[in-house]
Request: fold
Amino acid sequence: MKNHNKITWRERDKIAVWLAEKATFREIGRRLERSVSSISDEIKRNSRNGVYTAISAQYLSDIRASSGRSKNSRKAGWIYNYVERKLREGWAPEQIAGRLKRKYRRKIVCHETIYRYIYCPENEDKNLKEYLVRHHSHRSRKRYNWLPYRDIQGKVSIHDRPDSVNNKEVFGHWETDTVEGKSHIGGIQTMLERKTRFYTGKLIDNIDSINGFKAQSEILSKYPKKARLSVTMDNGRENYDHRKLNEVGIATYFCDPYCSWQKGSNENHNGILRRYIPKKTDLKTLTQGELNWILEDINNKPRKCLDYETAKEAFTRELNSIKFKCSDSQ
Reply:
């Protein structure tokens, strides 16, 4: 049986669930390997109006813990000022906690604590919940507009893509997709570098092969050859001219039909882009300068998969490494 360890937020969550299932204090204590008195004291101390919920219990526990430690109360002030500022900038709690840990080389606050702070009844007037990304309870299959079938000449299947590309070990391999505007008029050709998650895009007047290739070419031409090795794409009409990329040394790989998850990093970032540019937005009202500002904001957020480095930082580091190797070989 556990001794002298404080009840954790995970245990409080379980207690709330089991109480709802009519489990006895003794049964809950047995499951958590704690004494009956510990469970009884926890429920008595942290219930509100006779009702025990995990969030409320954790909040009451945190209040008691902080009230006796003025040092921690002062510390919490600057932490939560930082948390609120970053939430309003569109950062997720996990990004905030991870970035603080990266900066100070130790854990400052965990993302679960930030979530509890957001949902704390005392903070309702701050409307912090409004800054969280909304998740759907289930994912529906993407709807596709019917298009006349056209065979794409010279395409290479994603299943023939090298392992070094699949594993995101090598810099310079991209994914591309198109975000449609209102009534399918206009779009944004988006591209993402797989290793660093650097995300970029360009407005296009029409979603077709001419505009698709032009946008892809203009984006990639800004970077050295070793930073544009391949592009993975779907079977959309904007990719019919992919062989023009092959002509300048860029390999192209195609996803299976209706398998957008095979370029999931780009799809995920398109979802983030939709937070700024909702569906049914008339893209004619959006300028490239405004789009660039949005992309800059996305690329300046820390990423867990990059150990909370930002995509811009990772991409810049890789570019500098390429330039250094080139100058060193000369």
Remarks:
- The longest helix spans residues 70-88.
- The domain at 158-329 is CATH 3.30.420.10 (Nucleotidyltransferase; domain 5).
- The chain has three domains: 9-67, 70-131, 158-329.
